[in-house]
Amino acid sequence: MTAAGSAVAARPPATVRRITLDADGTPLSALLALPEHTPPRATVVALHGAGMSAAYFHGTARPDTSFLALAADLGFAAVALDRPGYGLSARRLPEGQGVMEQATTIAAAVRDLTARHLPGAGVFLLAHSFGGKPALTIAANGLVPGLLGLAVSGCGDEYLVPPTATTGRAAQWRLNWGPLRLYPPGTFRASGAVVAPAPPRELADAGRWPETFRRIGGRIRVPVRFTFAEHEHWWRHDRRAVAQLRSRLHAAPRVLVDHQPDAGHNISLGWTARAYHLGVLGFVADCLRPDGDRKEHPR
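The structure corresponding to this sequence follows.
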């Protein structure tokens, strides 16, 4: 590790605290991290996948896997939401919500967030796996005015494995995690704070996503970044699949599709989490540039 890298690693992590947001009467729990010495450049709202919780973005196995701490350290406000049916809302919504309902509920929570906290230059959505579906729907339907853009990992538009397929424990492990060597020691001992029961309505809705995305993809008019892990086994991400994904997003001003080496589906909990998170925050910073100064990404 370089001296500069050592200095960054040794810096005390940002404080992460729990908050509750009001989504038009539905309480959503969340984790919030703010820059300590400067106003936030923008607010990144992070949405976890199925069977996870907001803590997915604040992995504790190693401090440098925490997206929330890194974002705050680099000058962004970062909020990881417990999606509808998780956290505080689980009692009110024991069955959860489908994609369209979640998009509406999450957008209401974002309105509450921006009313009570300074969002900087605007809101950017970061989403993993199932969380990508309401995030993309929010963008397509314009539910968050002035949305800067979004970054999605572990979600595409064509399944490799049907989400309703019945598989054994070993197969489920391969789909959700991939090889053990991709994760720091202690990741799975600490996973009790990260995993959560997946509400049945969102699981039932999962199989409809390819058709839904075909309908809404062309309405997305903000920059989009997709990242597929090297060991992503839920979604197709070969050259043909990537070309098809891009074609769905023909109205987006920029579309970037990345592949993260040495990573499994749960990309934000692995050894390469920091590299992935830095890429996301670089994309957020790029979305903040005036139009003429933005980098041109390949389509």
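The beta strands are 16-23, 26-33, 43-47, 77-81, 123-128, 149-153, 224-231, 255-264.
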